[in-house]
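Batch manifest, entry 17 of 40.
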Amino acid sequence: MVAINEAHNSLFPSSVPTEIRALFGDPPLLRGEDTRLYNNLMNQFTALIEPKDIIEWWWVKDMTDHTWEIRRLRRFKILFIELRRDQDVDHRAGFALIAEVHGAGYEVSVREGEKDSADFFSSRIDQYKNVDKLIASAELRQDRTLREIERRRESLSRRLRQASDQIVEDNLTATGGLPRQH
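Output type: structure tokens
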């Protein structure tokens, strides 16, 4: 069990308390994604949110994970088109090589650039739209988390104001309307 806790502790930035890191589990990183970038993002959310309790630490984690997912999906949209284009270019180049070796007497053009990317985009638009839906879903989860933070902080602020007002009122009542001497 100690090895698991030490592993989790090394995966998150040191700004996250040890007992919180143990609850988070592994960061949602794919092989090849940079742990330092993820931790930098988490540090930025930690500085902005300034978590005071476990709920707020979960918000830091949620905001980091949602933002990371949005970043990943946007990157995947580009890579998806480039991967498909590269596969097709390799496929057509293979046919050109076969035609050259076997003397079929025809050429297969291998296009590249924006026109080629636009062609692949248009042929894969439905798949591209699906990635957009995933991004929109992640952005919605991110927005909901932000609204929860705002609601909780407003509620906390309201409760603190009421408690402060009650303390002042009780203090004035106890001293007959005069400020209490310390």
